[in-house]
Amino acid sequence: MKLAFLGLGVMGYPMAGHLSHAGHQVTVFNRTAPKAAKWAETYGGRIESTPAAAAQGAEIVLMCVGNDDDVRSVITGANGALEGMAAGTILVDHTTASAQVAREMHAAAAAKGVAFLDAPVSGGQAGAENGKLTIMVGGEAASFAKAERVLATYARAVTLMGASGSGQLTKMVNQICIAGLVQALSEGINFAARAGLDPALVLDVISKGAAQSWQMENRGKTMIADQFDFGFAVNWMRKDLAICLAEARTNGAALPGTALVDQFYARVQAKGGGRWDTSSLIRLLRDAG
Predict the structure, then answer these.
(1) Does pTM top 0.90 for this prediction?
(2) Beta-carbon neighbour count of residue 65 at 10 Å?
């Protein structure tokens, strides 16, 4: 298929690469031109200087940018993607953003006869590089059916969750659960060390029981080793949790644990750890004396 991919960050870069390797004709746009040039050199796709130009003639336009404002700018701003898209095409947004902006973009796209799917992902940079992301999608079933095979190029699971915004709402649940898991894992590892146990041996044992989790399997060893210069940054997690907390104020859901962990992450930022992996929550416990 003729595709466009907008945004070549740590997630978008490998995702677009998988599309090219699968045989699709991929045109890319990135605000930092050298990054786009490097991608094209690696994968052989085309480069355009604006989202509109990249989207011109594409059957499906995919994107992964930073936040709500970035989504609005890339889609509906000057030279935005919708300016280059024809009726009957599909726009897929992989950004983790608010359900509100997803619904806004759905309406803006519909006005041009373009289908819009909000499709945030879970699995981190490793999942993107290995093509093993989990994608949660909001939008119409017919549009999802057309885009599903393309999305499966870099995913192990692609699921339609409901109407527009449902993908973003599901991603919020994902982040709420992760926040609690990382805090609990931090407390457990710190407790094990202070109790005189071997934390690595403890995790090896309990990972074979009910306490097992992705965070334990993929972050436990690095947490014990006090290594955090990789992975999903605290700054991005705080962005995501702010979205969760704002949505909760709207729908009435109580998120006391999430609000507390968000403040713990604020303390990590204050220590200069905004770029550290989210598992750096344990630093606060270690530094407590």
Answers:
(1) yes
(2) 25
